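Chapter summary example: a protein plus 5-amino-5-deoxy-1-O-phosphono-D-mannitol.
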Amino acid sequence: MCGIVGYFGKRNAAEILVDGLRRMEYRGYDSAGIACLHNRQIGVVKSPGKIKGLREKVDASNLVALHESTLGIGHTRWATHGPPNEVNAHPHLDASGHFAMVHNGIIENYKEIKAGLANQGIECVSDTDSEVLVQLIAYCYRDNLEKAVSQALKKVKGTYGIVVMTDKEPGKLVTARCGSPIVIGLGKEETIVASDASAILPHTRDAIYLEDFDMAVITADGMEMFDLQHAPINRETTTMDWDEGAAEKGDYAHFMLKEMFEQPDAIRNAIRGRLDFEMGTAILSGLDFSPRDAAQIGRVLVVGCGTSMHAGMVGEYAFEEMAGIPAEVEQAAEFRYRNPIVTPNDLVVAISQSGETADTLAAVREAKHKGAVVAGICNVVGSTIARETGRGVYLHAGPEIGVASTKAFTCQVSVMLMMALKVARTRRLPRHEGELLSRWIQRIPELVENVLAQNESIKAVAQKYARAEHAFFIGRGYLYPVALEGALKLKEISYIHAEGYHAAELKHGPIALLEETTPVVALLNNIPGKDKTLGNAEECKARKAPVIAVVSEGDEGVAEGFDDKIVVPDCPPCIAPIPTVVALQLLAYHIAAARGCEIDQPRNLAKSVTVE
Ligand code: M6R
């Protein structure tokens, strides 16, 4: 969602801010702006639309502050309160023009605060919840910015990640967080604050992640951290291990394409050193379970959203099938609000690529509150969910920039399989079966390479269906979550209305929608239930819907009579989701490309959904 960047150092602030915002474009946004402070003057430039427009405005501006300053703040806004126009874009100024602030998150009691400010004669000019916070900070100000910030934040309900500056104390940036990430990059004679490591990586690897209710004051003398009561605190400096180049798209047309092609290596990284063939198990040191702990798990509850939830569904099947442990997957917001029954013998697994998804984080807190053992599967090291779960497994997939999640999904499924294998071996799975499975997990990168090698033929299939308005994906067993994920990929990047269904469910209603122009992607891999799905695909064909059959190598005959086929490697049912989803990712990508869609930043979407 929104992106924040702040800079204090010796270089030109505007350049660093605009570049930082560009690096966070992938998060999704619809307007952007920067404010720079120089000679007690704050210069602000904002622009609806893309960073390119903002950059042009900055270059054309005759505000000295923008060209001379070495201190400033910037923001990309994903509209929540009020349309994406210049007034609603950040940075927001207070009514006096002395304070500037950027904010991520939602101020839930903004109407109340706004009314209180109006009673004091302070009128807001934008529709946003954010502006009230900078007005409140200015109202609380006496002679110290951090004190005004903490005083204002104590009155706020909701979530925030903020960076504030004032021309009354020109050598200072104040940042604070509650529920919206803030990372502080510690460079040589410079400090960069951001909501996302990608804006910091080109400048430094040393970073501090703020915790909820932390504040940091950045001056020329360094940085000090406090809690909202103004008591000093310390946070560890961590080294960010992502390669800066990994966040660039290189020769690929889109990040999504690059990330799909990175999958073999990403999965290699996710499984490296984690398989023990001799014992037929997985070594996941971050899980921190003894066999005795594992034996006591009574149930596995997986929580997540979107693609991560789909990966969790594969995990649900794997835990039940391999370990014989009851498992359930639940949309994280539903888990959080429906007062779920959680017992101390439950293992709650939170899956999140970003580690910042608001609903998944809230589900983690609810599960911890109810006494469950909670583990995380995250990609972003040091993210809030990774830190709050305390135990878990990192994907090591490298930065995922494309809004449509691809390599995170295949790594999440690989990790879930290893997790299920580890627990299963402490329960009922015999060693030889564990060994067989670990050898298949080891082969996943090769299976993915096989599908990626079919890029051109999948593109040819995609081009036939690029003008469709609706599409269905059907599958069962381990491929049911893949049908959901295939439909999600297609709808989010091509804007084709796509639905994923359990193959058996289609005739309970959705089949009414089928017609000659509505393709059905049928997952007919060689797994239990294939013959039933085949029958369902025939039913679609009988209604004149074109069928794209995804079949296993060596079983191509299944595709006979259907309109198109995609062949994926034959492998055990629990492994099949991975090569199959890669075929569906490519299909969605090429359809979206043929339709001329903005693949890496689809309309209305944000990479990291940090509001409920
Ligand atoms: O960062 P997370 O994995 O928690 O994100 C959850 C979803 O927002 C995410 O998977 C979303 O559905 C994907 N961008 C879809 O491709």
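Key point: Residues 431-452 form the longest helix (22 residues).
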